[in-house]
Amino acid sequence: MDNEIQLISDGDGLAVLGDATDVERFLASEGLPSKDLGLQRLKSVAATGSVAAQAGSEIAANSGRWVQLTQDSARAIQKYGLRESKKSGLSTGVVKGNKGQIRGFVEFAKTPRSLLTNPAMLAGAAGIMAQIAMQQTMDEITDYLARIDEKVDDVLRAQKDAVLARMIGVSFVIEESMTIRETRGRVDEITWSKVQNAPATIAETQAYALRQLDALAEKMERKTKIGDLAATAKGAESTVREWLAVLARCFQLQDAIAVLELDRVLDASPEELDGHRLGLKAARQDRLKLISRCTERLVARMDAAAGTANAKVLLHPTKSPAVVQASNHVATGVHDFHGRLGIESAERSAEARRWADAAAQVRDKALETGAKGVDVARSRGNETLHRANSVKDKLSSEITERARRLRGDEQKHDEEN
């Protein structure tokens, strides 16, 4: 292809195809870390159709690397102006260079040797990209579970619910099938038959975990006394962490099933791979939205509890900060959980008001109110004194007048006698 680099983006990752040296040079120039795309797995697609020989030689001549779609790789896509296909949802283009020096000129690939002109090959590459993206999420969930030091199997064993008990067995079967896939490089009918009923059990477990979080949110909403809020919020810290771990494990296993499913379709019905990939992507987004709504609702209830606790911190200087602290821990845990699953969320952190700050605020308010009271009392006192003086003056005048009249009457009486 003479220094051509073919680029494919599915919204989750970027595939870089071309001569191995050119691909490495391009990735190095952009500073993008990558993983092997595994183009050799597309030989099963190339083995059918009139262009089989041509496609096979093209696979052999190309190297493929996958780049996770981050801010950096997204800028690269914008930089090279990939064009999106409304039918497949893929963005494609070709970067041409001269003597190995990549320059930012993009055009649609028109040469018959290009992978981008072969719909089957393009669909196969997109399917592999989807698998790598899901495996990336699976690895991040594994790290997440290890970091929070939460053994999901221990959580599941502690439950008596039959749905959760079946989850452990299902996870063993899925992990076994993934091992066979890695060893054989494909998913045959026998391997697929072991796991094809697993999604129902995983969905039941996911629904159970979501109900537990919803129940906790409703419980927080019903509590009005600070003592009850503090006890419930404290217990929520560990409870939420456990059920988030279960949800993370469910999502991880669902992605594993999708990886196996794409391999099975690639092996059995490669012409249906693109449509199947889009269907799995839509279903995955629906699961993310469901999980996001439930966990966001829980965080909102915890935030409301923190607000109630802050408002009553003066009366409950010990329990109120405990409610806020528990709320912060839950919100941070949910935010971390969202990050691992690729859910966008805003990290919240309420700040517990210190008793002294609250006391000072109340004191200042009391002083302000007291000062206003003194002014009112003083004003009313002056008014009362004024009225009293007026009454006193009036009474004094009346008494003087009465005394004068009495003296006059007595003097007149004496004169007559």
Uncertain residue ranges: 49-53, 99-113, 369-382
Write the H/E string, N to C. EEHEHHEHEEEHHHHHHHHH
What is the total tally of β strands?
A: 7
Straight-line N-to-C gap: 152 Å
Helix tally?
13
| Biggest β-sheet strands, sense, barrel | 7 strands, antiparallel
Rg (CA only) = 38 Å
Strand content is 5-15%
Q: How many structural units, i.e. domains?
A: 3
Question: How confident overall, as mean pLDDT?
Answer: 77
Q: Could you estimate the helical fraction of the residues in percent?
A: 55-70%
Categorize the overall geometry. globular
Structural class: alpha+beta
Describe the structure in your own words.
The protein is α+β, with helices and mostly antiparallel strands and 417 residues long. It has three domains: 4-122, no CATH class; 148-353, no CATH class; 361-417. The protein has helices at residues 20-30, 43-46, 52-61, 71-79, 119-147, 152-157, 162-184, 189-195, 198-222, 226-268, 273-311, 319-341, 355-416; strands at 4-9, 13-18, 35-36, 63-68, 83-84, 91-98, 101-107. Strands 1, 2, 3, 4, 5, 6 and 7 form a seven-stranded antiparallel β-sheet that branches. Helix 7 runs antiparallel to helix 8 (189-195) and helix 9 packs parallel to helix 11 (273-311). The longest helix has 62 residues, at 355-416. The chain is globular. The termini are far apart. Mean pLDDT is 77; it is low at 49-53, 99-113 and 369-382.
